[in-house]
Amino acid sequence: QEKLVESGGGLVQAGGSLRLSCVASGRFFMINTMAWYRQASGKQRELVATITRGGNTNYADSVKGRFTISRDNAKNTMTLQMNSLKPEDTAVYYCNAAVIVTGPIRPLEIWGQGTLVTVSS
After folding, report:
1. 3-state SS assignment for residue 4
2. Over pLDDT 90: what percentage of the chain?
């Protein structure tokens, strides 16, 4: 079964750094765009950053210059390096991927279970 598993969340002081990782597993024909989303308590889930298979990236204005998204297509992994963290970055962070799976070949959108990032002031 296709799945995404995040890791790397935790508690950090404002100004600190964390690195989130996402590992994809399953019967993939191809993994296309991958993304990180986050959802703070009581708020809607929001897009943080995206990365295409070719490495093109986009970021939410709130994280530009502080967060860096990257991926390794050979290992089916994605990371989010988060620097200069702020209390308002506190949220559950989710990994997302648009994939094409085999048996039969079809597109899917898959999500991870989320990892909590807490930034203390």
Report:
1. strand
2. 98
